[in-house]
Batch of 3 targets.
Target 1
Amino acid sequence: MRAVVLAWLLAVFCWSPLPAAEARVVQLPGAEVRVEFDEAVPREQQPLLLEWVAQSGRAVAAYYSGRFPVPEATLLIFSRAGRSVSGGYATGWNGPRARITVGREASRADLLEDDWMLTHEFIHFGFPGVPDQHHWLEEGIACYVEPVARVRLGVLDARRMWAEFVSEMPQGQPQPGDHGLDRTPTWARTYWGGAIFCLLADVEIRRQTDNRRGLEDALRAIVAAGGSIERSWPLARALAVGDAATGTTVLRDLHARLGPNPEAVDLEALWRSLGVVKRGRRQVEFDDSAPLAAVRRAITAGRP
Ligand SMILES: [Zn+2]
């Protein structure tokens, strides 16, 4: 029995990866992210991965008033063949932690220009866990804010963002037999239905406040009130804190409509009013004479 224990101890000390030796700290505005590389991550890829972590973190910090939404977080990076980024996941259990898998052949452009997933996972750090039936709001915020944050940082073109919204958001519309967002936990309704909710909220807050407030004010206030991924909140609390920050009842009202009811949103009319004009497949042009063109510009311009 003792020999077995000794063999186990030897195995642990001799063969297990040494996370401390493979860990790095990325400094972000208002935060430190500890990055732990799995032993399969090539050493020569690590500088590029750290640059990618820093860029993704800066995009999120810029959206949240210039500060990353949590002061400390841990990111585990795993490795696989190919070029893709996959398997992103964020949790607040045992501190803000995320994991992600990166292809060993991922290029600089794959990570710094095309990847959305790490920014998406970091955005999850800035919202509390809400009961399961409202999970669509956690994913909707991450889906909607991710490209907005990257456009604001200057690493994603605004036309590409709007073209993506125009082509992907219709997936979030209710299908026959669907209920409201609170009772239809499908992939499309959770991610893109949640993103439609956030876009509608952002536009409506800006419309009602003459562009002085936006969804970011609501989300920043939720973080400032302690609503990070480490906490669990009732949905009503998050909506109330967000609404108070914008001086509106947009979040509460929108949830009262889209939470229980399978209401289809007139996205075509929304694109027209924002001045987003489809031009061919996955391409858009902007019409600055549209009634809400200033709202469209403010969404991606942001302000300090
Ligand atoms: Zn997510």
Target 2
Amino acid sequence: MQVNLRHIHKRFGAVHANNDINLTFHAGRIVGILGENGAGKSTLMKILSGFQPVDSGEIWIDNRPVAYTGPQAAIRNGIGMLQQDPLDVPAFTVLENFIYGGGDGVFLPRKTAARQLREISQRFGFELDPDMPISQLSIGQRQQMEIVRLLTLGVKLLILDEPTTGISAEQKQVLFDALRELASKDGLTVLLVSHKLEDVIALCHEVAVLRAGRLVGTRNMPATNAQLVTMMFGQQLAPQTRKPLDLVHAPDALVLENVNIRGSRVHIENLSLRQKAGEVIGLAGLDGSGQELMLRACVGLQKTAGGRVRLKSEDVTGQSYRAFLAKGVAFGAAGRLEEGLVEGLTLTEHVALATENATLIDWTAAHKHCEAQIKLYDVRGRPESMIEQLSGGNQQRVLMALMPPSPILLALEQPTRGLDVDSARWIWEQLLERRDRGAAILFSSPDLDELVAYSDRILVFYAGQFFEIPDAGRTTIDEIGRLIGGHFEVQHA
Ligand SMILES: Nc1ncnc2c1ncn2[C@@H]1O[C@H](COP(=O)(O)OP(=O)(O)OP(=O)(O)O)[C@@H](O)[C@H]1O
Ligand SMILES: [Mg+2]
């Protein structure tokens, strides 16, 4: 199947999200869709898969124009997109969910569904048990289920938007092998939207790069990381350097002594840790392995059940989140809009709420301060913009602007989740500046490269157990990948 986009335009108010996009996708090719945050990648993919109507322009399939009225129609035309947050019903089993579908309104006959689920899973080594409740699937398994479903529905062009976030190294390998085989043997076209250039380099035959709504170019692979970065940002990024810090003589920032944490899914027993001022500790693990529990216990959001927590030399065990904040802790939640930022509030209102005396707000001063922060943190937005109108990268910038400049401890869940390479580096510049002023940084990340690049030490969690990598500079992505999968014994050999 050959798919051809002609003069695609899409606007959201003043934003020209897709500006005259012309692209052709051929059978059997894996195409990387690249571009900075807000470039228009997801918009284009949603138009192609029928989740969003186009303003003007045409989609041609095998030299005939087609018109879409929704995802169902797109699937009938052979185009399907893997949903990032599938709209599945938690009480359903894998098979039931498979039959009733991923929010696209297409149902499968039960017999066909059961057979296809078994056959396609076997072919690609997916670990899908039809009778398993959907709530027990990992992100990687849900993704496998969605792929099998779209293949069963006869999809010939498969779109994946950031598919490798939150899945294990093994699952990523299984996914990539499946995509390669689907392209080479079945002639499928695969579109991969990703900020992980290593993944693009490993998988794609060609790339298309968007910038500010326009197509800036296409090229065949292979290409180096540097070449892709230049296409995306119009220039090379300066290398990021870290000032070496004397951690041996630095005072303690955070001390955990034999801490127990009881979460709803995992328990952490007997965790002891001494984190120095200026030390960066990365927390690795698949979703729900215990790293989020630990991080939240260190900021007073998760109760500890035994042991002591100290900030500097002060015992803060059992104190509230507010007390932790007052003592110099800053927390950044992974769900920016669920926890860190408030939908419906403007940037000025966020700035005003983050200042200490939120009951007596001087709005003129808040507006001025907000303008200064927007400038300082290079936020693409205005003081009166609602937070949800900003792209992900800009929301993350606002969160940084709201953080205290010199905290004792910065605890961050996935600080660069969904950010493009340039925005992610910018965030780390801000974090490392705070580190240079003595802040200890504790962060979780699904991105192994990020863990290795910025951590002094890494703690790997698996089902509540943990393993310490004392010198992050001497570990490898492969080693962390194995540990994340629970293979702690490899280390002791
Ligand atoms: N539903 C919407 N309403 C208003 N503006 C939108 C909407 N969807 C996207 N936009 C805007 O359109 C532009 C393109 O957004 P899009 O989500 O396509 O970018 P992207 O390339 O996928 O970025 P990212 O890498 O951050 O996912 C952005 O400026 C974004 O703020
Ligand atoms: Mg996107």
Target 3
Amino acid sequence: MMAKLKARKPKRPERPAPPIRAHELVRGVRLAPGWRLRLAGVGELDRAAELLALAHLRLDADVAATIRAGAHAEVLLAGLRDGKQALLYPIAEAAAAGDPNLAIVKMAALLVAVDRDDQIGGIVMTVPPGTVFAELYSKGFLPSHALLGLTLATKIQGLAVDPAARGSGLGARMLAQAWRLHHQLGAMVVYGQFPIRSGLAAYYAATPFEVLPERYGIMLEPILGRQAGIAPSAGEQIFARWSQSAFRAIDHV
Ligand SMILES: CC(C)(COP(=O)(O)OP(=O)(O)OC[C@H]1O[C@@H](n2cnc3c(N)ncnc32)[C@H](O)[C@@H]1OP(=O)(O)O)[C@@H](O)C(=O)NCCC(=O)NCCS
């Protein structure tokens, strides 16, 4: 059964932010007074893993290896440097090499919130939605087209703030910057999920993200032109933000 949600009252519009430049993502985008958000460095992977564990997540070994190899978020940095169409070159290369993972791992961003002393107080990790790739591929999309689909949706894989740094809205500010980054790079939807009845529905609903009703997923057909979607994992609920209301299409999964 298909059920469309009613139009939602828009939240207070935010001021348009200037584009993020590649060097800012490396050195730090202003987050809050005394805080910057930047790509985690090679020497920070243990600390990053410690924070991800607060959200019951493990740091993906392929992403960690990519960071150690000096290729952290290389695809995203190319997009910030040369415009979102530049995302397509490494994607096309990976597709031509028959190894989509070559591009997928370089689209992950492990972003850390650092204070004036460069101490990490929070983390937000964004990844291309691998399940979307797998679904498109299984439905007969060419690997290059399936990879292209990955640029249109971004998953917030993890969000955590060190208990000592909580209470001043760092998490919401990291979410806002994650949205800004991927919106700039062409994502139509940025989404994540949290455990049902964890209390986090109220947390995400207070941000510009929308909390979908339990068991609701995101239909990507209006974006991709083929039936494909993002369903919540068992026991999880989705929060999402769309770049254009025209693409906001939610159906019961
Ligand atoms: C969720 C989290 C990132 C929020 O940290 P933060 O940005 O510093 O948030 P704040 O402490 O400023 O809290 C903002 C508001 O959300 C509420 N809140 C925070 N975490 C909450 C939770 N787990 N459940 C319900 N409410 C929560 C706070 O009570 C606060 O409400 P108030 O403004 O009325 O006082 C942090 O609590 C955390 O790292 N939790 C563990 C990891 C986690 O659960 N991550 C999300 C996984 S999907």
